[in-house]
Task: inverse folding
């Protein structure tokens, strides 16, 4: 068991390092640093001085090592677009809206999805079942910015009920949260439905019913527990999807979060910010996959006994 | 030859009626899945529209013929209205279908080209090759395709073919996994051992036995790769690093539509609907095919 | 004595331990333990034992479909134990196999004609048209209508599929045929047909056949010699009639006892022994009772020679 955790952690570390190298190399392969987009080309010697100042003239692997060393100390450098602050402080400001909206989207979406999926499974092949399955498919296949667009069109443009701009007051949060919640609802609805269906078909449920247990107890005590494992472990990786979606949701609803920064950093070729964001996200993903793998191993007695040989 | 065997002929070979192959039953299962069939029909319609775009719309989609009526709402002459640059919006949408579907199918095709041989070899040869392939897949799974695609797209500054390649770069994983699983399940089967006993080389076995038996994962992988690619393209175009104007792309149009949506809602609505419907129908078709070929895959 | 068609000398296969339940103490599962087996020309040797005895593994080792951990395999007197695939290819023409699972033995996506013609194609023999002809001829030889060449495996019954497997195995004209439980999955009446087919073809082609089975009743009419395996070792080896009339090893007797007897009056009281009881009941012989000197001077059980080419695993003691 412990060996399994250690193995997964090492594997994730390796993956993370490899990915960080790849990202780093890609960023520097973009010919054109922060000074090439300007209208007035800088004279060569000034440019050379500036590059040296920012450490951009060293060999690649040196730059990489220096950078990673800094990362370990939480030093991500200074963003090109606002040299007065550090990348870290920019991120610190920006992550609040992203986390709030995305987190709420997930926290609200997951239970709704589970409820939807369970209801669908219990009323199999009824209109509710078909509706739930349809909604789940919609949520999963349609890209999040399309969903956002539809939400804006329906609720903001035509019905005029909700604002679609910025994120100052809670009223403005509703639509973005709905957009974020779509994927969790759909995913959990699917998982819950198939997990409950699977468990309902298992022989031990028939035995429980034969023993005279009331339907409600059968469902809540036994069926749900067995279905819970995959649903718990999927929570973190879903977080990954939300983070990716934030790029679009924040663009559509004009929320000043990490996603918006990501887009603008690409636009402005702001290496430090872009690099930091990519690394941060990759690290989050690696960690969340690791945690969910370990969690799955812990919860699943079969793996626990066999020693985690997947 | 002794008489016993000749007599056996009569006993063991009554005239059998031709029976149905497993593929036939898969087809029947597919037809029973109404959502999947519906998706297929809609997709077919969109594909036909895309192919016959010039005929249907009568223009080439880029003519700014109606500048004086820019941003006009839908009417009898302009079913979807007119866009901000004076182009008939219906024509733009239809040509957008060409671009989206074209990219989707091309990317899916490239995904298969990459994923099929890798999956077949990883499944059959096992050992180090398999280990290496799985590590590679793991690498690709950790990084969200969208983000990596963003990065790559900024490198290449967009353009149709880079989008296709980028989408294929993330689509091959699924195809590879599906083929690998199928090959692994067949690898221990006796007809493979028999071929080995006959002296067949690994290439012969992969090419002549394993790949033909992998038709279903190939088809499923191909069809499922299409909506993925289309989503990637739309997302990138939305952010401005995908398909570049004036080539029409629904993602691009949604971006433009965002600026006008409060007053000229048709600019936002139609590309959104077009994208949603096309991706949805392709996904339903792909899911339906997957269920039809292997009902055990989904937790029904 | 002419060179045997196939000879296995001290053939061993150990599967590496991987944290499974039931591995032996030293780490690894000894599936085949120093097995000696000689298949003379134009003879049928039956290799019997129950599931887990190692008989199927032995067959796979002999065919080099599995890698041996130790020992030697000689095909027509030539050592093929460690040849690489390229070198093996030529030898594979001489040694073929028929498996138990008739459905899994045939590629579901190929027609019967293609299946039977494939071996010819792999070895680059004949033209395409000639190969098709051969396929049709062989369909007839195994008792199927040649028009079946365009059909697919799923359209046939189990017995018919086995016939196709036999045809595919023999189309190259091998000298050795390994039949791994070819009838075990078939109905009783079909079993007999396939056995008859194999007997006829064996006589026609002078095949040397290694017939692997767990069912002694199937073997009786058919085999020249019977080799009995138990837990990876050969425990008895004798001409067929001697095995049935005068089995010496307790395991062989247990196997024979398990064969259903038609005459109710002749019903013996069956003794179902456990594996431990069988191991404990290893026969003992004094040295003078043996036909030949025991090979090894040891108190461990070894294969000793009794009269009439009869070998039994026994302990030699005074």
Result:
């Amino acid at each position: 068991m412990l060996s399994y955790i250690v193995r997964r952690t090492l594997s994730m570390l390796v993956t993370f390092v490899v990915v960080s190298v790849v990202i780093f190399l890609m960023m520097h392969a973009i010919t054109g640093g922060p000074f090439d987009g300007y209208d007035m080309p800088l004279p060569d010697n000034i440019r050379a001085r500036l590059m040296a100042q920012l450490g951009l003239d060293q060999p690649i692997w040196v730059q990489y090592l220096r950078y990673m060393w800094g990362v370990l100390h939480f030093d991500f450098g200074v963003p090109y677009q606002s040299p007065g602050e550090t990348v870290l402080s920019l991120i610190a400001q920006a992550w609040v809206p992203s986390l709030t909206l995305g987190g709420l989207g997930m926290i609200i979406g997951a239970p709704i999805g589970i409820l939807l999926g369970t209801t669908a499974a219990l009323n199999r092949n009824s209109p509710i079942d078909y509706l739930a399955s349809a909604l789940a498919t919609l949520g999963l296949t349609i890209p999040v910015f399309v969903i956002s667009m539809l939400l804006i069109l329906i609720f903001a443009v035509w019905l005029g009920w909700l604002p679609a701009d910025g994120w100052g007051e809670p009223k403005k949060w509703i639509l973005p949260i709905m957009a974020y919640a779509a994927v969790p609802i759909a995913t959990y609805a699917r998982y819950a439905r198939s997990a409950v269906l699977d468990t309902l078909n298992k022989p031990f449920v028939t035995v429980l019913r034969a023993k005279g247990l009331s339907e409600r107890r059968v469902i809540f005590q036994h069926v749900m527990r067995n279905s819970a494992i995959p649903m718990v472990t999927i929570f973190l990786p879903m977080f990954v999807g939300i983070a990716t979606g934030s790029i679009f949701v924040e663009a559509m609803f004009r929320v000043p979060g990490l996603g918006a920064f990501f887009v603008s950093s690409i636009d402005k070729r702001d290496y430090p910010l872009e690099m930091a964001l990519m690394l941060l996200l990759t690290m989050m993903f690696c960690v969340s996959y690791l945690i969910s793998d370990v969690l799955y191993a812990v919860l699943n007695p079969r793996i626990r006994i066999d020693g985690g040989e997947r | 030859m002794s008489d016993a065997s000749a007599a056996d002929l009569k006993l063991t070979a009554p005239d059998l009626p031709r029976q149905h192959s497993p593929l036939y039953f898969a087809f029947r299962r597919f037809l029973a899945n109404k959502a999947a069939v519906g998706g297929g029909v809609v997709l077919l319609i969109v594909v036909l529209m895309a192919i016959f775009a010039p005929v249907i719309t009568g223009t080439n989609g880029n003519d700014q013929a109606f500048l004086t009526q820019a941003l006009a709402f839908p009417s009898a002459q302009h079913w979807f209205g007119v866009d901000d640059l004076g182009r008939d919006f219906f024509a733009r949408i239809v040509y957008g279908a060409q671009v989206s579907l074209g990219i989707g199918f091309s990317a899916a095709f490239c995904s298969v080209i990459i994923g099929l041989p890798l999956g077949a070899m990883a499944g059959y040869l096992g050992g180090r090759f398999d280990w290496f392939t799985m590590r590679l897949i793991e690498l690709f799974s950790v990084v969200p395709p969208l983000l990596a695609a963003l990065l790559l797209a900024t490198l290449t500054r967009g353009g149709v073919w880079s989008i296709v390649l980028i989408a294929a770069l993330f689509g091959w994983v699924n195809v590879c996994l599906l083929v690998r699983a199928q090959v692994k399940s067949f690898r221990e089967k006796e007809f493979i051992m028999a071929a080995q006993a006959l002296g067949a080389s690994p290439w012969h076995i992969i090419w002549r036995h394993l790949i033909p038996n992998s038709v279903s994962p190939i088809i499923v992988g191909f069809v499922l790769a299409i909506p993925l690619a289309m989503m990637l393209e739309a997302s990138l175009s939305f952010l401005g690093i995908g398909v570049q104007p004036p080539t029409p792309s629904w993602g691009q149009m949604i971006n433009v539509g965002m600026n006008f949506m409060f007053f000229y809602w048709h600019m936002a609505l139609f590309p959104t609907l077009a994208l949603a419907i096309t991706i949805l129908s392709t996904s339903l078709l792909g899911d339906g095919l997957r269920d039809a070929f292997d009902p055990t895959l989904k937790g029904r | 004595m002419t060179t045997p068609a196939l000879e296995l000398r001290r053939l061993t296969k150990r599967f590496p331990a991987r944290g499974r339940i039931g591995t032996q103490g030293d780490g690894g599962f000894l599936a085949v333990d120093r097995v000696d087996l000689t298949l003379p020309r134009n003879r049928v040797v039956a290799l019997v034992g129950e599931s887990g005895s190692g008989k199927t593994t032995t067959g796979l080792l002999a065919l080099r479909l599995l890698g041996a951990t130790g020992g030697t395999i000689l095909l027509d007197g030539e050592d093929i134990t460690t040849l690489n695939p390229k070198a093996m290819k030529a030898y594979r023409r001489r040694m073929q196999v028929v498996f138990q699972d008739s459905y899994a033995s045939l590629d579901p996506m190929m027609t019967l004609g293609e299946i039977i013609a494939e071996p010819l194609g792999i070895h680059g023999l004949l033209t395409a048209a000639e190969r098709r002809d051969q396929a049709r001829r062989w369909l007839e030889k195994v008792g199927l209508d040649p028009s079946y060449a365009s059909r697919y495996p799923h359209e046939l019954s189990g017995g018919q599929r086995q016939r196709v497997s036999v045809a595919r195995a023999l189309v190259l004209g091998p000298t050795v045929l390994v039949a791994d439980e070819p009838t075990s999955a078939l109905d009783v009446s079909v079993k007999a047909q396939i056995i008859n087919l194999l007997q006829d073809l064996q006589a026609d082609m002078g095949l040397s056949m290694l017939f692997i089975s767990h069912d002694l009743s199937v073997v009786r009419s058919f085999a020249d010699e019977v080799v009995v395996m138990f837990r990876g070792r050969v425990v008895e080896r004798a001409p067929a009639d001697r095995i049935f009339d005068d089995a010496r090893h307790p395991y062989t007797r247990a196997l024979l006892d398990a064969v259903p007897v038609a005459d109710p009056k002749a019903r013996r009281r069956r003794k179902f022994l456990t594996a431990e009881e069988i191991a404990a009941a290893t026969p003992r012989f004094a040295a003078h009772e043996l036909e030949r000197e025991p090979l090894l001077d040891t108190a461990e059980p070894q294969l000793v020679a009794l009269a009439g080419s009869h070998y039994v695993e026994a302990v030699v003691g005074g």
